[in-house]
């Protein structure tokens, strides 16, 4: 997780073949946030930092909603989108100054996994794009629901080819990404498998998705995990194919697109913001106390811990996150993780209620994200690793 001064900045890298639904997912994520129905119930708004990008995404959404037109597909278009999550304007005089939460969404072209670059310039853009997204803590690998359905009974044909394509693409980039062969310190450590176009398989819940992947392509997924582990420092703090989510940007029928029928799109922000915090403090707890791995993981969790935990917030106000005191503050975050485990997510609801009562915008939003993840698990939309 990256911290941008006092404000918080999350990054997510989205990977998928061409046609797997990346553009539709992004357009649905942003477009629905501009709808009156979202604004009536949400305590925050989502705004694109680049006005032109925001207009294009909103236009894509409105064409789906009103003209039943899918967004145009893109080829070799590597784009990063930055969104600010801001508190809605309020006349409440007791409201405290609100920090913004920012989401950077990296869209990695699927063609760069399936096709070799045609020019040196294109190859350099591919390398630069991947280097730009290594600041993400979370990566989302999309499994195309349409292709999975088309291979019913022979899902292994599609899934094995998909994971092998991702693996080979990463292996080809390895020498260009590593500096003198040294593993990367900053790298996505949580690789979630997402079923895009989940509406095509309405009877498949997230547990069923995991069973299909493990049964049909478990060996290939392990090979992908090994390839990722070879790129990163401290590979023991790496989760690949242990988290699963169902994603449907809209319900597509012949001649009709229903943008109100969505699944999992509202989990993008919670997965980017809260999932790393939850996972990192658990890993730090299990690592040897005082080790580099434990310290690095605990410190990476601090931006969220500072917001959610008053004791750690006090350290932050004193600016005392350097040296031994910083290590103590880092490990204090693990106490909250232990409490969250024991309460099965109920603490997030308590934290959200308390922050809302105290008019602490950012704390309420992040705690609310924790509640969203818990509810998604209960609904069979999200499956989080228990490791």
Percent range for β-strand residues = 15-25%
Structural class: alpha/beta
**Low-pLDDT runs:** 1-7, 314-326
CATH class of the largest domain: Alpha Beta
What's the architecture of the largest domain in CATH terms? Answer: 3-Layer(aba) Sandwich
Provide structural commentary.
The chain is of the alpha/beta class and 387 residues long. It has two domains: 2-273, P-loop containing nucleotide triphosphate hydrolases (Rossmann fold, 3-Layer(aba) Sandwich), CATH 3.40.50.300; 279-377, no CATH class. The chain has helices at 22-33, 36-41, 51-67, 111-114, 120-133, 145-150, 155-177, 206-229, 268-286, 292-308, 310-317, 323-343, 346-357, 361-378; strands spanning 2-4, 7-15, 44-48, 79-87, 101-108, 138-144, 190-196, 239-246, 251-253, 256-258, 382-383. The longest helix is centred in the middle third of the chain and has 24 residues, at 206-229. It is globular and about 50 Å long. This is ATP-binding protein. Residues 12-183 form the Double-GTPase domain.
Q: Could you give a short description of this structure?
A:
The chain has helices at 22-33, 36-41, 51-67, 111-114, 120-133, 145-150, 155-177, 206-229, 268-286, 292-308, 310-317, 323-343, 346-357, 361-378, and strands at residues 2-4, 7-15, 44-48, 79-87, 101-108, 138-144, 190-196, 239-246, 251-253, 256-258, 382-383. The protein is α/β, with parallel strands linked by helices.
């Amino acid at each position: 997780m990256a911290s941008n001064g006092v404000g918080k900045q999350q990054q997510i890298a989205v990977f998928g073949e061409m046609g797997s639904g990346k553009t539709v997912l992004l357009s649905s994520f942003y477009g629905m946030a501009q709808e009156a129905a979202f604004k009536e119930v949400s305590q925050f708004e989502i705004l694109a930092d680049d006005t032109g990008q925001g207009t294009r995404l909103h236009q894509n959404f409105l064409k789906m909603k009103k003209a039943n037109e899918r967004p145009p597909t893109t080829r070799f278009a590597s784009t990063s989108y930055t969104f600010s999550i801001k508190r809605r304007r309020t006349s409440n005089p007791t409201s405290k100054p609100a920090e913004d939460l920012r989401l950077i969404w990296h869209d990695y072209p699927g063609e760069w996994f399936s096709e070799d670059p045609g020019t040196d310039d294109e190859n350099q853009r591919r390398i630069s794009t991947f280097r730009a997204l290594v600041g993400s803590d979370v990566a989302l690998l999309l499994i195309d629901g349409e292709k999975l359905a088309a291979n019913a009974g022979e899902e292994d044909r599609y899934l094995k080819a998909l994971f092998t394509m991702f693996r080979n693409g990463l292996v080809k980039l390895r020498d260009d990404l590593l500096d003198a062969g040294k593993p990367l310190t900053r790298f996505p450590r949580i690789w979630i498998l997402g079923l895009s176009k989940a509406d095509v398989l309405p009877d498949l819940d997230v547990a069923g998705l995991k069973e299909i992947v493990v049964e049909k392509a478990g060996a290939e997924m392990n090979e992908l995990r090994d390839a990722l582990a070879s790129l990163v420092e401290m590979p023991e703090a790496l989760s690949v194919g242990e988290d699963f989510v169902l994603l449907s940007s809209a319900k597509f029928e012949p001649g009709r697109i229903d943008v109100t029928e969505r699944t999992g799109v509202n989990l993008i922000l919670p997965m980017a913001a809260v999932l790393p915090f939850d996972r990192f403090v658990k890993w730090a707890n299990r690592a040897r106390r005082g080790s580099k791995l434990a310290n690095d993981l605990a410190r990476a969790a601090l931006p969220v811990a500072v917001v959610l935990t008053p004791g750690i917030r006090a350290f932050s106000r004193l600016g005392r996150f350097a040296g031994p005191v910083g290590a103590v503050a880092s490990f204090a975050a693990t106490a909250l993780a232990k409490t969250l485990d024991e309460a099965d997510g109920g603490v997030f609801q308590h934290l959200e209620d308390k922050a809302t009562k105290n008019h602490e915008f950012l704390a309420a939003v992040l705690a609310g994200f924790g509640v969203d993840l818990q509810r998604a698990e209960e609904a069979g939309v999200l499956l989080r690793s228990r490791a």
